[in-house]
Amino acid sequence: MTAQTPTSQSSTPAEKTAPTGRRDVQVLPVAADTIAMRSRSWERLRFEIEYALEKGTTANSYLIRGNLVALIDPPGGSFTAVFLEALKAEIDPNDIDYIILGHINPNRIKTLKSLIALAPHSTIVCSNPAAIALREAFKGEDGEADIEHAIQPVKSGDQDLDLGQGHHLQFIPVPTPRWPGGLCTYDSYSEVLYSDKFFGAHLCNDEAYDLERESLLEDQQYYFDCLMAPNAKQVETALEKLKDYAPRLLAVGHGPLVRYGVAELVGYYGEWAARQKQQSLSVALIYASAYGNTATIAQAIARGITKAGVSVESINAEQTTTADIQAAAEKSAGFIMGSPTLGGHAPTQIQTALGVVLSAASKTKLAGVFGSFGWSGEAIDLLESKFKDAGYSFGFDPIRVKFTPDAATLQECEQAGTDFAQQLKKKRKAAAPKVTATSVEKAIGRLVGSMCIVTAKQAEVSSAMLASWVAQATFTPPGFTVAVAKERAVEGLMHTGSDFVLNILAEGKHLGPMKHFLKPFSPGENRFEGVDTRETEDGQLILEDAIAYLECTVAGRMDCGDHWVVYANVSGGEVIDNNAKTAVHHRKTGTHY
Residue 538 pLDDT more than 60? Predict the structure, then answer.
């Protein structure tokens, strides 16, 4: 049962609903003496790139009642009021003995402060880096942290906690550059792993568990690609630690709990992390972030790089050594640095990292600069001028974001990352010896396809691409497949459930649209400037130069190496010019378009 005024609720949710503008808490038992409290939002909660599928999200918290009571992972500030109301319906907060934090960030501080006021005798269990961040966040006017007495940092992986009635909690530090305070918790009695940021998905629905495993996997992989792919080394380290445990349930921080596909999802994480590390090109992404905004930009840039087939080594300058920065700068094909501006300056850690990169990175390597600021952007100017004076070439124009980035800005950051990766790949290709196409590659080139333009729009973000790998796939329902290269900007608008239009071009009249959409676009540039278009009832874009168009919805995607094969159902369409023939793309080889 689900209610906006939460009460004690049973395990199986009722019928599926998709309310808008609503936040509530779904409460259900998940193990012995254990309940999950899933704070839910059906709307896009934040602007981070990992929320871009706009399927809502859940912030999952867990309450274990042994002889002692532990609350694991209270939600962020977006859910403070509704969560505390639900919590008080379940337990007197004053009875909470421990508050266990899988990570700490500014968004969680609001809830934590309100919670501590209700549970003043509770002890906060967290990693040592999280404890340092908490002390900083709770500093009073006298400069002292007023919760020092309540913090119990986990300083080694063998620290544990006995709650009684069999519940024995073991703590596993799993730091990543974005969450240096990462901590998983394992209850050996109920065999539940509280995995916080690992194994989740930003998806809100009434299904508390992974019942629809096949469709859920796309959301879980997108979540991994956005959050974990730039931290592949740390993911592999975490998986190595977690292999000593055998959970029957992954109590994740976001999305449906994983009960039926535990081993499968853990295996996929290993495969996805290994795939990132196997890429032949890598980028060192070095940053610091005072309030989380610069980290958000870094995540979007990293997403653009990894989707283009180049790996990222994400480095938080505040949590690493100069030796690690030097090693990354030396081995990477390019590097990108980001910094906030604090008091008109870059943080000390960034200034130190800057010196290391300038001395370690070859001047032939590609550079990039980004950052966020409140009233000025001197730190970004500093990075740009130092790299320019040193003779480095830039993979994109410096990215300057005032305050918090919005969805459109993050889309531009993602595109900047993709452009950066593509330039690295072009440099490598130019340096490689030319290879004559094989007979098989020439034969593949004889496969032909219709010349089309795919157009897609979501809110204020729109994109398009030239497509020739298009084929009808089904009669009932009418459907077709289209191959979309992973680095295409439009790929981010073509996930399951997304709408788009397939515009079919005319023979003899296709060169104009083809040349327009083949040209390189800078991040954020309007791809439809100077192009005649009209909108469907759903706001999708139809090209006036098309001889026919199809209104489509993505029904599924298949990961096929360097492309996604998208299967779409057709909901509408029209032939505009009955006398024109469809333009067809002829190739000499199957190694390129």
Answer: yes
H or E element at residue 15: none
- φ and ψ of 144, to 5 deg: -100, 145
DSSP-H helix ranges across 432-468: 439-444
Query: DSSP assignment, residue 156?
Result: S
Which tokens is 338 given?
A: 């980001």
Instruction: Reply yes or no: is the peptide bond before residue 477 cis, omega within 30 of 0.
Output: yes
* CA–CA separation, 102 and 37 (whole Å): 15
Tell me the β-bridge partners of 503. Answer: 453, 549
- What CA–CA distance (Å, rounded) separates 230 from 378? 27
Give the pLDDT confidence score for residue 431 in this predicted structure.
86
Q: Dihedral of CA 486/492/494/495: which sign?
A: positive
Lookup result for tokens 């929320």: 51
Distances (CA, A) of 193 to 108, 169, 254, 262, 295: 21, 10, 14, 10, 27
**What are the tens digits of pLDDT across the range 390-447?**
999 999 999 999 999 998 899 999 999 999 999 999 999 888 888 888 999 899 999 9
For strand 584-585 and strand 449-450, is the pairing parallel, antiparallel, or unpaired? antiparallel
pLDDT exceeds cutoff 50 at 19: no
* Confidence label for 143 from pLDDT (cuts 50, 70 and 90): low
Contact 229, 272 (CB under 8 A): yes
Percent of the residues in the chain that have a pLDDT greater than 70, as a whole number:
94
Q: How confident is the model at residue 21 (pLDDT cuts 50, 70, 90)?
A: low
Mean pLDDT score of the chain: 92
Cα separation, 392 vs 362, whole angstroms: 9
Structure tokens at 507: 């023979």
Question: Which of 456, 452, 544, 556 lies closest to 499, judged by CA?
Answer: 456
Q: pLDDT band at residue 14, thresholds of 50, 70 and 90?
A: very low
Give CA–CA dist 359/322, Å, rounded.
12
In this prediction the pTM is: 0.90
More confident residue, 337 or 140: 337
The Cα-based distances of 75 to 61, 71, 107, 151, 564 in angstroms read 7, 11, 9, 18, 34
Would you say the C-alpha torsion 433, 437, 441, 446 has a positive or negative sign?
positive
**CA separation, residue 5 to residues 1, 8, 54, 581 (Å):** 11, 10, 25, 60
Helix (H, G, I), strand (E, B) or coil at 230: helix
Distance CA 153, CA 171 (A): 11
Q: What does the block give as tokens for 251?
A: 């109590």
Neighbours of 181 (CB within 10 A): 26
> Whole-angstrom Cα distance, residue 314 to residue 283?
8
